[in-house]
Every structure is written in C-alpha cells, then in structure tokens.
C-alpha cells in the first residue's frame, strides 16, 4: 500500500486507504513529525510518497535545512519514502528541488483529467492558483516566482492575520484604522460568518483560547482595540465582513485573471475553502468528486502519481 503525505509548515496531511487525516503540526514548535507518522507505518507494508512546503518555516536557517529535516523525519517512519520535486520527479534524498512542490503534484495529477482548467487550492494559509493547461511552464517555479506571477497568494481560510489585508474598517459609518497586533485571524472571521465550523478551526487561536463564535467575536473586536462590549456583536461582525470582502475579491479577481490569461474555460476549487469559493466563482468543487481528500489534494495527488509511475 502507498500512502500520500504532505508536510506543510502548519499541517501534516496523510491520505491512505482509510481516508484523509489532517494533523495540526506547526514545525516552528518542534512538531513531532515522525511520531505522528509512525502509526501509519506500524504493522503494514506501506510505502510513502511525499510532498512538502514546510521547509519555509522560520525555525530553519534556509530551505535546504528544512528539506533535510523533513526528509529525515519522514524516513524514520518510512525508510523507503520517495519525495516529489519541482522537476516532476521522485527523489530519495534531500535535494533543493523538493522545496514547495506540493502544488505541482496537484497539477500533475489533475492535468490529464481537466486539461482546460485553472485550479484554486484554498487552504488554511495560502491560495494556490494553477493553470493546469500550462503544466510545462510550471515546473521549476519557486514560490517567489509564483508570487510574482500571481499563482500564489499568501492568504487562507484559517491562519491569515487580519491586518495583512485590512488597513481600516468602517464601524457605524466611521472609518477606523486597525491595530497591526496579532489579535485575530481569518479563522475568526470565517467562523463568525458561518463559512467554517468550530471543528474546522484546526490551528491555534491568537490568544490560545476557545474556538467558539463568542471567543472569535472578542478577538475580532480587539482588531480595532476594543472590547466586544464597546462595539457590540454588530461591530465585530463588520470587521469580519470587511475582511472577507477584501479577501474574496483578491482571490477571485486573480483566479479570473489567470483563467483569462491561460485561455482556460473551467475553474476547479479544492481545499478547506472549496465550497465557499466554488459558490463565489461558479466553479467545480472537487469535494463532490474526491470527498474529504480534496482538503488534502497534494497528499492524494502524490500518492496517485507514485502508483501510476510504479515508483515502489
């Protein structure tokens, strides 16, 4: 049996014959990657196909150090693990090409099934926008180049600090600058607006307190340096709504632009934000086809690619 693994900076995602398994696993807090993977290897003859993006975590001095850490941690659980790189090939050692290749694996997996599409994979931290009909132009792209091309937007459903997009809000008709402190995240906004449920709030909260609507409202109030009692629920909801308006337009406008540039006639959406953005874009929600595996698309993709290429 082959399992697929995606080692991100904040989440460890595994796809196996039993389904999809997502572990909050912040690498900057000495996350026990090996310990989390050992149960998937215990008592089986499994091999692991792996992608990563966690090498960018700031606990590492550079990407190659992060790649070496991730490769070592995975191979302690799966000695025969193979790692998909930005050259579209599998490797068994730590090489620079492994950096942030998870999105390319998704493109490699989907491109033959959806040759005329743009994929939006909107997760906890980032939005990947991938023109599947230009796969040959995608290999070798670094995250810096993807930022420059608009293929990567560093905003997501859970971990985005609100002031990264929100410079001010209008409260009861008064323009109000926001604090740049880490008081609330996109998860707070989306929870309050009903876009996610408490069980999907998988990352830490800024204050390490409850993951409830009431607690999120209090965190949102602090974005404008207020207690919830000062601005009321209505004021906190206004903060959430105005953040969402900016985030939605930023992502949707970029997806439509890239679809136009590439000549694609279909938009696909995967990740935790798939149902929400599928509605906004009139797109195909891959959750309907893939089920929960759409929330861990790179892990699914690298598993299926390894199967087809008989890597093991």
Structural summary, described in words:
By secondary structure, the chain is an alpha/beta fold. The protein has two domains: 2-100 and 292-308, Nucleotidyltransferase, domain 5, CATH 3.30.420; 115-281, Nucleotidyltransferase, domain 5 (2-Layer Sandwich). 38% of the residues lie in helices and 18% in strands. The strands form three sheets. It has a six-stranded mixed sheet. It is globular and about 60 Å long.
SSE layout and pairing:
Layout (H helix, E strand, L loop, with lengths): L1 E6 L3 E6 L2 E6 L8 H9 L5 E6 L10 H15 L4 E3 L5 E2 L10 H9 L6 E6 L4 E5 L3 H4 L4 H7 L2 E2 L14 E4 L2 E4 L8 H7 L20 H10 L5 H35 L3 E5 L3 H8 L2 E2 L1 H4 L6 H12 L4
Parallel strand pairs: 1-4, 4-5, 7-12, 12-13
Antiparallel strand pairs: 1-2, 2-3, 5-6, 7-8, 8-9, 10-11
Helix pairs in contact: 1-2, 3-11, 6-7, 6-8, 7-8
* Total domains: 2
Structural class, judged by helices and strands?
Answer: alpha/beta
Head-to-tail CA distance between termini: 10 Å
List SSEs in N-to-C order. Answer: EEEHEHEEHEEHHEEEHHHEHEHH
Number of strands: 13
Q: Tally the helices: what do you get? A: 11
Fraction of residues in helix: 25-40%
CATH class membership of the largest domain: Alpha Beta
At CATH level 3, the topology of the largest domain is Nucleotidyltransferase, domain 5
**How would you state the average pLDDT, rounded?**
96
Q: List the strand order in the largest sheet.
A: 3-2-1-4-5-6
- The backbone outline, from C-alpha atoms, is globular
- Largest sheet entry: 6 strands, mixed
Strand content is 15-25%
Q: CATH homologous superfamily of the largest domain - what is it? A: conserved archaeal protein q6m145
What is the CATH architecture assignment of the largest domain?
Answer: 2-Layer Sandwich
């Amino acid at each position: 049996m082959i399992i697929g693994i995606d080692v991100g900076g904040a989440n460890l995602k595994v796809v196996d014959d039993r389904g999809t398994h997502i572990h909050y696993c912040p690498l900057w807090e000495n996350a026990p990657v090996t310990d989390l993977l050992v149960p998937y290897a215990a008592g089986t003859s499994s091999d692991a196909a792996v992608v990563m993006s966690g090498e960018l975590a700031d606990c590492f001095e550079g990407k190659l150090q992060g790649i070496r850490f991730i490769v070592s941690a995975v191979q302690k659980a799966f000695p025969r693990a193979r790692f998909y790189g930005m050259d579209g090939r599998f490797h068994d050692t730590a090489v620079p090409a492994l950096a942030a290749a998870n999105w390319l694996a998704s493109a490699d997996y989907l491109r033959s099934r959806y040759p005329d599409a743009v994929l939006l994979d909107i997760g906890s931290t980032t939005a990947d926008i991938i023109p599947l009909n230009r796969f040959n132009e995608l290999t070798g792209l670094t995250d810096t180049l993807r930022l420059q091309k608009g293929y990567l937007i560093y905003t997501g459903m859970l971990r985005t600090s609100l002031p990264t997009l929100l410079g001010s809000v209008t409260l009861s008709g008064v323009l109000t600058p926001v604090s740049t402190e880490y008081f609330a995240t996109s998860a707070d906004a989306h929870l309050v607006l009903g876009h996610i449920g408490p069980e999907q709030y998988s990352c830490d909260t800024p204050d390490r307190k409850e993951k409830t609507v009431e607690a999120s409202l209090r965190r949102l109030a602090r974005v404008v340096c207020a207690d919830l009692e000062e601005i009321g629920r209505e004021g906190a909801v206004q903060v959430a709504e105005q953040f969402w308006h900016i985030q939605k337009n930023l992502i949707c406008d970029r997806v439509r632009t890239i679809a136009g540039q590439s000549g694609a006639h279909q938009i696909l959406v995967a990740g935790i934000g798939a149902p929400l953005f599928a509605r906004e874009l009139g797109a195909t929600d891959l959750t309907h086809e893939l089920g929960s595996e759409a929330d861990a698309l790179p892990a699914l993709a690298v598993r299926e690619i390894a199967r087809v290429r008989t890597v093991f």
